[in-house]
Write a structure and sequence with these properties.
By secondary structure, this protein is α/β, with parallel strands linked by helices. It is 42% helix and 20% strand. The protein binds S-adenosylmethionine. InterPro entries: Bact_Chemotaxis_MeTrfase (IPR050903), Chemotaxis_MeTrfase_CheR (IPR026024), CheR_C (IPR022642), CheR_MeTrfase (IPR000780), CheR_N (IPR022641), CheR_N_sf (IPR036804), SAM-dependent_MTases_sf (IPR029063).
Length: 283
């Protein structure tokens, strides 16, 4: 049988065992993200676009590129392709009610003595989470100009960060923003009724930066609040353990850590106590 000939129809690109294992362990080493065997189809589907863009004929060729001297240029695309970025404005709304009533309103009572507020949205994806935080902050701490308030929004995926920094979304994505906030902080994009734009007031509060949670963190000061929701779920237990202890290191005593609905600190660190469902207070 000659190359390309086969009795059964073959898919255009086949992700073999060896290549899958290589790419999966490369991703884990680089980002902490674990991809188990049942995700092979997903990995293959997402990377096929890269193979086509690079004019490659096989995953072996792609692995050779990553492994080779020019691999660094492709790593960003590889990581961007393999992250899962699902997010939404006002996702898990009880967290924002907790932020408003248990963190921000008490802090407003301490003004003007304590005007510095630092919040980190770690694994912010395309920005819906930090914009939601910004809406709650701007609305609760009015007038926000009197505060030294900043929201650091970080992710490993540069495509998502570009979307966040632009602050433009489809009208459908914007539809989960409650009307009171939408009226004040969101406007239609001129000439495109299917798109909405986050206000400059919100954008001024947020700094979008690329940061790999798996690497050293450059930030100096402490945070009052960290949101890390639906991120650690992709990591293994030892990586989660390290990550949650690092959050304890960068939070002020009494600072809050918000996790996703399927995540928990139980058995992973004793440096937090529970404040509410999936909300933890740094001891
Ligand atoms: C499912 S999204 C969660 C978005 C948002 N926090 C939420 O709950 O709606 C997970 C995000 O974590 C990011 N991520 C995964 N591994 C990361 C790492 N090692 N460093 C930084 N971000 C990472 C992904 O790029 C993705 O955007």
């Amino acid at each position: 049988m000659t190359v390309g000939e086969s009795s059964a129809p073959r898919r255009e690109f086949e992700l073999g065992d060896r290549e899958f294992r290589y790419l999966a362990s490369f991703l884990t080493r680089e980002t902490g993200i674990v991809v188990t065997d049942h995700k092979r189809q997903m990995v293959s589907g997402r990377l096929v676009k890269r193979l086509r863009a690079l004019g490659m004929r096989s995953f072996t060729e792609y692995c050779d590129l990553i492994e080779g001297p020019d691999g660094h240029a492709e790593i960003e695309n590889l990581v961007n392709a393999l992250t899962t970025n699902i997010t939404q404005f006002f996702r898990e709304p009880h967290h924002f009610e907790h932020l408003r009533t248990r963190v921000l309103i008490p802090r407003a009572g301490e003004m003007p003595r304590r005007s510095r507020l630092r919040i980190w949205s770690a694994g912010c994806s395309s920005g819906q989470e930090p914009y939601t935080i910004a809406m709650i902050v701007a609305e609760t701490l009015r007038p926000i100009e009197g505060w030294d308030a900043l929201i650091l929004a970080t992710d490993i995926d540069t495509n998502m960060l570009a979307r966040g920094a632009a602050g433009q979304y489809s009208a459908e994505e914007g539809a989960t923003i409650p009307e009171t906030y939408r009226k004040r902080y969101v406007r239609r994009v001129h000439g495109d009724h299917d798109r909405v734009q986050m206000s400059d007031d919100l954008r001024r509060l947020i700094r979008f930066r690329r940061l790999n949670l798996h690497e050293p963190w450059p930030m100096k000061g402490l945070f009052d609040v960290v949101f890390c929701r639906n991120v650690a779920i992709y990591f293994d237990k030892p990586t989660q353990h390290r990550l949650f202890n690092r959050y304890a290191d960068v939070l002020v005593p009494g600072g809050m850590l918000y996790l996703g609905h399927a995540e928990s600190l139980i058995g992973l660190t004793d440096r937090f106590e529970m404040s509410d469902k999936t909300v933890y207070r740094r001891k």
